[in-house]
Write a structure and sequence with these properties.
three-stranded parallel β-sheet; alpha/beta; seven-stranded mixed β-sheet; single chain
Length: about 325
């Protein structure tokens, strides 16, 4: 590992560290690292504090003219990020669920809008919002250990990916494969398959992952995800009416085999069908509304509880 020096006051951070390596910045997430169960149960859960610290660290390095690129990594051995702290939707109102997803989307949009390229170093479990965080980055480098698994399990919890996941996954692997990935709540993508599908750019030896990512970051020519985000043009009330119509017209024979909850599958179809011709900002507005509406369904509440209780959920299309 190259020499690393802290950027700013190290005491400022609780869930990450921020260091400089030449003209690259290294942001290392380590939420709950001291908890031996954290890698699988809470490894870098994207809660409000961690997302707030990530936003602050990104703003700090964006304003430093000596830093040309950024690497986002994990201090956990087994997990990059297992996703958003989804238990926050238990008992939440529609407005609370909407605020939850907006907070995550703010982090996503900040990464897209940065002028400096961001490289994600994926060392292990990368699920849900963790994979959406990685997909928002310009490049993804993956370690080769067997514990590396990527996936979007949201529909198995009764919700949908809503940190740009429906849109960024399409950009990386194409619409047909992305739709199947999300509908079936796929969580078994290993490093080799991720590379062949185009989900990651490189696979390297896990014990040199961060060094390789830093070297790559210092050599990349430009930001990749600098596409035009556009502007939201659709009325929220219209989206809400369309969602209720989709619920009312959804039939069992339209459901895809897999772990996805029926109502979540219905809104995955809705988001894909209605956002393909729209701007990115318009599309994630649809994600917001679909996620918040699903969060207050009995199936989503059951899905999240089942995950926490480590049992199979029983969905009733309600």
């Amino acid at each position: 590992m190259e020499d690393l020096t802290p950027i700013g006051d190290p005491g400022r951070w609780q869930d990450l560290s921020l260091e400089r390596c030449g003209d690259a910045a290294l942001i290392t997430m380590h939420r709950l690292k001291k908890d031996p169960r954290a890698a699988r149960q809470a490894g870098n859960n994207l809660d409000d504090r961690l997302m707030g610290e990530l936003k602050a660290a990104l703003a700090l390095v964006e304003g430093d003219p000596g830093i040309k690129s950024i690497v986002l990594a994990s201090g956990h051995r087994l997990a990059f990020c297992i996703g958003a702290k989804i238990d926050q939707v238990l008992g939440a109102t529609f407005d609370q669920a909407l605020e939850f997803v907006r907070n995550g989307q703010e982090l996503l949009l900040m990464i897209h809008r940065l002028k400096k390229p961001v490289v994600a170093a994926l060392n292990g479990l990368t699920f849900g919002g963790g994979l959406e965080l990685a997909m928002a980055c310009d490049y993804r480098i993956c370690g080769d250990r067997e514990n590396v698994r990527l996936g979007l399990p949201e529909t198995s919890l009764g919700v949908i990916p809503a940190m740009g996941g429906t849109q960024n996954l399409v950009r990386l692997i194409g619409e047909a494969k992305a739709k199947e990935f999300i509908l079936t709540a796929k969580v078994d993508i290993d490093a080799g398959l991720a590379k062949s599908d185009g989900l990651v750019d490189r696979v390297v030896a896990s014990d040199v992952l961060v060094s390789e990512a830093l070297g790559f970051a210092r050599s990349v020519p430009a930001k990749r995800s600098n596409f035009d985000l556009g502007a939201p043009t659709t009325d929220r009330l219209l989206i809400r009416r369309e969602i209720e119509e989709r619920f009312a017209g959804w039939r069992p024979d339209q459901e895809r085999e897999g772990r996805g909850a029926p109502l979540a599958q219905a809104l995955v179809h809705y988001v894909f069908e209605t956002t393909s011709p729209r701007s990115f900002l318009d599309a994630i507005l649809h994600e917001q509304e679909a996620f918040a509406r699903l969060s207050v369904t009995a199936d989503a509440q059951e899905g999240v509880r089942a995950m926490l209780e480590e049992r199979k959920p029983v969905f009733r299309r309600k």
